[in-house]
Specification:
mainly beta; eight-stranded antiparallel sheet; 57 strands
Amino acid sequence: MGADGLAAWTDDTPTLPGGNPFAISFDGVDDYVFTEYAGVGGSNPRTVSFWVKTTATTTHGLVAWGDSSRNATKYHIRVNPGTGTIRTEVQGGNNWGTTSIVDDQWHHVVSLVPDIPNVNNLDVRHYVDGVFDTMLNGGDEPINTDITGDLANPVSIGLRIQGGAQNFNHFAGLIDDVSIFEGALTASQIAELGAGVSPLDILKPSGELSFAAEPQDATVLEFGSVTLSGEVNGTGAIGYQWYENGIARTSATGSSLTLTDVSIVADGSTYSLEAYNQNGTFNTIQSADIVLNVEAETDPPQVVSVKGSSGGINEVEIGFNEPVDAASATDVGNYSIAGLTINSAAVSADGFTVFLTTGNQTTDEEYTLNIQGVKDQSVTGNALNGEVSFVSSFVYADLVLFDGPDVYFEFAASADDSAETTVGGFTATYASDSGGDLPESGSGRLVKSAVTGSVAFTAGNDHVVRLPDSGLINTGLHTMRTIEFWFQANALPVEPGDGNFPDRMVLFEEGGAIRGISIYLSGTQTGTPTEADLYFHIWNIGSNDGVGDEWGAALGPIEVHTAVQAGVVYHAAMVYAGDDSDFNLGTVTGYLNGEQVGEAVGAGLLYNHGDDVGIGAVNGNVVFHNETVATAFGFPFIGVIDEFAIYNRILSPERIAAHFEAGLVEVEIPVDPGDLVFTEVSADGNEVTLTWDGGGQLQAADDVEGPYLDVAEASSPHSDPLDPSGRKFYRVVR
């Protein structure tokens, strides 16, 4: 009860069969009851039921909770001034009835929020003495009761707290049997309450709880899955709790319990199921203990996939049908490949995949992998001893992904005006600043080992690929960076160009008028040029970057440039290595076709540089090497860009050269085989025939959850003998 005053118990109570002998009397001055119950939140349905006897029509509160400082976030029930009827307020909207309850007689009152979408105060229903009370209302406000915020008050009785100033409005009269149901009662249930039925009995099951089927002992293979279940007779809402070795298991509150990846140490564990009536009576029954038997697995792990990657990656990825033991899986001595050295072995966190690094693999060459002594994680430590063949392959994207880019665009074909990152998690937008056709996505590839297309920027359309500001690229502090891409210029900028500086074509830019990075072509010839300079450029003309270290103003632009020609495919890479101790030590290095073409010293740290990011033109602001500032859109590139990647680390000269060399390897672009789909499954005698479209690998398993193993040399249509002793499950994967 409230600390300001003590609400008094009284034996003046509504006449109810078997009713409680006391109610609470509030003096309207300083009496109230505070509870620890937060109330029903959000737009969730609710039913508030209580008995009231009063003559007061002031702004007092009967039952209230929530935050009354903002619209929609409180739930206050009080008497409506003037009419003396029941009123519910949500702040910004209210709803009141037509039957007066201020006649100094006991009345049963209900305020109910129904379970409907987009509920608001106009949907609140009132009942007086078990009968629906026709509503009047004011305002129209959603119901979104706040029960967790700093200004949210728990349920109070005989009081409502109004506004950010927390004004107390006290009730004068008697209140009895306050009940809050986290759901909407039916009209018949409310009529029962109005007739004096106890709230504890309203949702009570009509019969006692009993087990129709108790949980049974179960047996499961080590690392397998098993479901324990029970069936309970009873009406109304029934709750469940599973116990493991006598202890309640967290989140195990359904009539069934599924155990996955069961360890051998669980062998002999006991389980039981408790069922209880959730709504008031808490009638409880408990099943007998059952025993879980876990059998040790005796089959060795099986290889389900092998992928060899050449082209400078030189990795073999081995997929297993179950987790393998880390100690044996990372022992290089357990593997051999004829014609290749194995340098290291690592296992994935889930234990299903092993990665081997090897000597130089040859693309399209077949190798035989021998595995001796790689164990599974079972208690018996079953070891695999066998061989599997694979053909080493390579595509350019594998090499980029192997080196861990932060942003990567393959520029595959797109049906709309956007390009999705393979890595980076955001979308770039294709645009034409002049309103012409958009850049052509998925056009002919520049990189022979890529299996996707490129993006083409055509003359007269003012093309650009717009990238939003991102912490991966230009917002925040960046101390190092590698940018790489392939390009072919179909036209070149002209000297002297238009204006006071040579014309330029921007391949990439990030940042604005103070600091940023840009890679662009600058004209060096008049007329119809055949050559231009490719600039790798970084600038910082700020004067207050860094704490106590104003190196920005002295830095200005620094750049590396080299000549390129029209109609030639190039691999370009720029490495920025900042230095936070001395701006004279940081560098910008340019690479063309795997060879370093220059290095400029003077890069410190590149601080936050917004104004968006652009590929193929200026998307925000940019500063060129002569410190001329270009604003808004401009300087569009005419040509093709492919395989664009950003790394927030430094790629070594060797890795950059490897990327260039790998891009020259001819790889056939695969034809899309279409969706994988079974078109026919038929049985004839003791044989089943499966027919499917889309190519892929047929796999089979004895259980629907696997493990699935490749069916050797299976192509559509494929026939298998029927197994009369059990079921067989098939799938096709690619």
